[in-house]
């Protein structure tokens, strides 16, 4: 397509919008979408601000190594922030930048210096956050996305055959590093809920680096399921309740002894009678799990083994809950 004798830039963004600028290189790209164009000039900051204020989209801008210190990209009076989706800001200087509510979905923020920047309410979904510096930056209400970019790439790589294991391990290392960095910054800013979320992700990506069938990975997975690496105390309660109920059903099927009488459900009994016996077994299961041991009801047969296992696991689970609960509350 030509306009006034010039070839229009070939870049098309995620919304299907084609750049209106003229192409300046052999690849058919304009200055802003050309990854080889030098963006280190002192006037880049002002030029980017002017484009944003004009209403033109900033999607896909190639701003590698750009000096954007103190850049002001806050779209005042509009619910949506300026759109820098898929932009390349690799090694850019964003110190003291005003980026409230900015849309940086899919952007490359590799080793960006964002110290003292205002990133409140920014959208960083699918952004490459490896090595980003967020010291003293404002990071409240950021939309980080449900999965780290490197982790998403790792999942895709698992389906390939060549060099799959090494590539997956490297990507999970990077994902762990990203989560550790963000988790530390969240802790410094008092964002404890976000810090907890990223701690869980950090531990999961560390687990993915372990051999698939190793006991270390199995233990790590168990801890994740049981308590979310100490960040999910309700999981401990849910597991405890499930175990108590399951054991109660087992006792009801096997039978327990109370004053010489065997308490056991039976198909020939009515539902009311069986329900009463099941409640008795549930009571015994709770007493066993909490290791109270009143002695009014005792297991029989294989039920003794089940009761011993339940009591042992109950002691461990209750101690675990105290640790997890205290950790969560002291934050």
Automatic annotation (TrEMBL):
Top-level taxon of origin: Bacteria
Membrane-traversing stretches: 236-254, 275-294, 306-326
Stretches assigned to the Potassium channel domain: 254-330
Gene3D superfamilies found in the cross-reference section: 1.10.287.70, E3 ubiquitin-protein ligase SopA (2.160.20.80)
Keywords, comma-separated and alphabetical: Coiled coil, Membrane, Repeat, Transmembrane, Transmembrane helix
This protein's record includes keyword Transmembrane: yes
Coiled-coil regions, chain positions: 158-185
InterPro entries: 5peptide_repeat (IPR001646), K_chnl_dom (IPR013099)
Protein name: Ion channel
């Amino acid at each position: 397509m030509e306009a006034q004798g010039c070839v229009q830039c070939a870049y098309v963004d995620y919304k299907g919008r084609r750049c209106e600028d003229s192409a300046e290189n052999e690849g058919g790209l304009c200055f802003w979408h050309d990854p080889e164009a030098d963006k280190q000039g002192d006037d880049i900051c002002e030029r980017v601000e002017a484009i944003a204020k004009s209403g033109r989209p900033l999607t896909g801008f190639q701003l590698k190594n750009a000096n954007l210190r103190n850049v002001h990209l806050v779209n005042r009076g509009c619910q949506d922030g300026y759109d820098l989706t898929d932009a390349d800001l690799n090694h850019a200087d964003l110190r003291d930048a005003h980026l409230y509510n900015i849309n940086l979905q899919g952007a490359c923020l590799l080793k960006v210096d964002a110290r003292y920047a205002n990133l409140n309410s920014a959208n960083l979904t699918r952004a490459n956050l490896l090595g980003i510096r967020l010291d003293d930056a404002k990071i409240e209400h950021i939309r980080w996305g449900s999965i780290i970019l490197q982790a998403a790439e790792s999942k895709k790589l698992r389906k390939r055959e060549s060099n799959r294991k090494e590539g997956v391990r490297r990507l999970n290392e990077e994902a762990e590093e990203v989560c550790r960095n963000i988790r530390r910054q969240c802790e410094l800013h008092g964002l404890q809920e976000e810090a907890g979320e990223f701690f869980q992700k950090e531990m999961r990506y560390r687990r993915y680096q372990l051999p698939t069938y190793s006991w270390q990975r199995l233990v790590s997975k168990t801890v994740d399921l049981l308590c979310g690496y100490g960040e999910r105390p309700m999981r401990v309660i849910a597991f405890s309740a499930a175990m108590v109920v399951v054991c109660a059903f087992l006792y009801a099927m096997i039978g327990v002894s109370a004053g010489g009488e065997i308490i056991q459900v039976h198909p020939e009994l009515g539902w009311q009678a069986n329900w009463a016996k099941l409640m008795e077994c549930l009571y015994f299961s709770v007493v066993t799990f909490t290791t109270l041991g009143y002695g009014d009801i005792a297991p029989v047969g294989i039920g003794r083994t089940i009761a011993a296992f339940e009591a042992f696991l109950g002691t461990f689970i209750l101690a675990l809950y105290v640790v997890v609960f205290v950790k969560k509350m002291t934050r």
